[in-house]
Amino acid sequence: MKTATPGTTAAGRPYLFRMLYKSVFPSAAAWIARRGGTFDEAEDVFQDALLVYYEKAMAGKSTAGRDEKAYLFGIVKHLWVRKFRQRITNVTFEEVDADLPDEVISREPAAEVLLQHLSSAGKKCMELLKAFYYDKLPARQLSEMFGFSGTRSVTVQKYKCLEKVRETVKQKALTYEDFLK
Amino acid sequence: MRTSLNELKAIDDHLFKRSSPADQTVFQARMILQPDLRNSIALQKQTLWLVEQYSRRALKAEIKEACDQVKRDPCETAFIARIRRLFR
């Protein structure tokens, strides 16, 4: 099975996700259906699991010595247990991997409002910060992508963007506890 | 870079453990002496968490689109129907 390696490009990701959907979703859906879930819930949890799987693969944490299909399925089970704990009947904790984030995508209202604002008012900055901190793209590539004159400009612009977003967060007067729960 | 940006870089280096041991020691001493620095670190953590959330939403949208492509593919009609039957 093809795995998400750090060399996987943005252009190669859709193929990887389609391939994993076709190979792992049927068994994950069957497992969730047996526990009373709906198709839409199964798909949502599976897509979150793909996200976690991809993050771990990019961080070099998932693949060594593991069966990729079983690993992704393990993440699905784990996320399902967390999301729909009240419905869980026959899952033992041995079946799931504990080393996963508590919450893949936060629905905290304060964060929702701020993200909506930043997605429109500060989109270019958010895209640059995403490319640097999340995608971990090298400065040279960022320079080409965002049209900067060189890697030094990338660094300066990155901190200017960080400052701008920080200021927005501060102005919104949100406390740290508001959305870092 | 101007002073305020250098301060953000120092916090960034501290959070991602990119500083030398000597710089870490100086930074930790500053954290004791400058209470505002702790607030500034908290604000930067919060900002980076938002960047992570923004990025995850973008990746989730990409994943959803890839899954939807499979569902829209006429060649996969039987595959999707087989999965949907599991939920009846």
Automatic annotation (TrEMBL), chain A:
GO terms for molecular function: DNA-binding transcription factor activity. SUPFAM superfamilies: Sigma2 domain of RNA polymerase sigma factors. InterPro entries: RNA_pol_sigma70_r2, RNA_pol_sigma_r2. Residues 20-87 form the RNA polymerase sigma-70 region domain. One of its GO terms (biological process) is DNA-templated transcription initiation. This is Sigma-70 family RNA polymerase sigma factor. It comes from Hufsiella ginkgonis.
From TrEMBL, chain B:
It comes from the Bacteria. This is Uncharacterized protein. It comes from Hufsiella ginkgonis.
